[in-house]
Design brief:
The protein is α+β, with helices and mostly antiparallel strands and about 250 residues long. The chain folds into 2 domains: about 120 residues, no CATH class; about 100 residues, Arc Repressor Mutant, subunit A, CATH 1.10.10.60. The protein contains 11 helices and 8 strands. The strands form 2 sheets. A 4-stranded antiparallel β-sheet has the order 1-6-3-4, with no helix packed on it. A 4-stranded antiparallel β-sheet has the order 7-2-5-8. A hairpin with a 4-residue loop joins strand 3 and strand 4. Helix 7 crosses helix 9. It is globular. The C terminus is likely disordered.
Length: about 250
């Protein structure tokens, strides 16, 4: 797949492992274009990331369940916040290079998935699964991030401070930041579907239209009217197809 147009990826509320077995991407900043490593971890983000393909692309993306990431990356999650980290800094460089080489030499998509699964299973950590944070995320998703953090903490038998520490360690971000990301994702998806702004304000629990515009601006750097005006690129079409959205549960710009 070829694409020379920049693609903006919204915060997802999940940590991702991105493996480029084709040509690498560049990350675009304010007047900069930095070459990205072929294998990297994208930590929890509160702002969008803009990337661009350099030539032919081949990508495997692992979207970890919010609480499941600790099973592979241990207690490093808070340190990954708002960062993109070379996979070789978390695992061995030789294992990382071997992983990318095997993906490049394998034709079948299913075989590529099996290779990545094998890599992850071989690198499981002994960090216990946090049931309380998992229950909190289920509640946040059910209410589109609108439920009060104090209420969730109380239901779990924790103080707000205890809940915040536990959650950040298990998920890689604070409960409040994740709630904001979830609401922004829901709002972006509603805008894409053509819903009225007034309805989105009500559904997502924003105080008013100004609040919605401010929150979307913080998470997308765009106003609602600008969100989907840009012409679709190959990457847009790939990631925003109906099947991809249903599987990934997020929207790319």
């Amino acid at each position: 797949m070829l694409s020379s147009t920049a693609t903006t990826v919204l915060p997802t509320g999940r940590i991702e492992m991105v493996l480029h077995y084709g040509d690498p991407f560049v990350q675009i900043g304010d007047g900069t274009q930095d070459r990205m490593s072929r294998a990297h971890i994208v930590g929890q983000h509160c702002q969008p990331i803009t990337v661009k393909a350099t030539a032919t692309t081949g990508i495997v993306i692992v979207r970890f369940r919010p609480v499941g990431t600790a099973s592979f990356l241990g207690n490093t999650l808070p340190a990954l916040s708002n960062s993109i980290v070379d996979l070789a800094n978390l695992f061995s460089r030789s294992a990382t290079v071997n992983l990318i080489e095997r993906l490049a030499l394998t034709e079948s998509h299913r075989s590529k998935v099996n290779i990545v699964e094998q890599f992850l299973l071989c690198n499981l950590s002994d960090t216990p699964f946090d049931e309380r944070s998992a229950a909190a995320i289920t509640q946040m998703n059910r209410h589109w991030g609108r439920e009060k953090i104090d209420a969730i903490a109380k239901a779990l038998g924790l103080s707000r401070r205890q809940f915040g520490r536990l959650f950040s360690k298990s998920v890689g971000t604070t409960p409040k930041k994740l709630s904001r990301v979830l609401r922004a994702q829901k709002a972006a998806a509603c805008i894409r579907s053509g819903a009225a702004i007034a309805d989105i304000v009500d559904w997502c629990g924003y105080a008013d239209q100004s609040h919605l515009i401010h929150e979307l601006g913080a998470h997308t750097r765009k106003r609602p009217s600008e969100l989907f005006d840009a012409p679709a690129t190959e990457l847009h079409r790939q990631f925003n197809s109906t099947n991809a959205r249903e599987f990934c549960g997020l929207t790319y710009l």
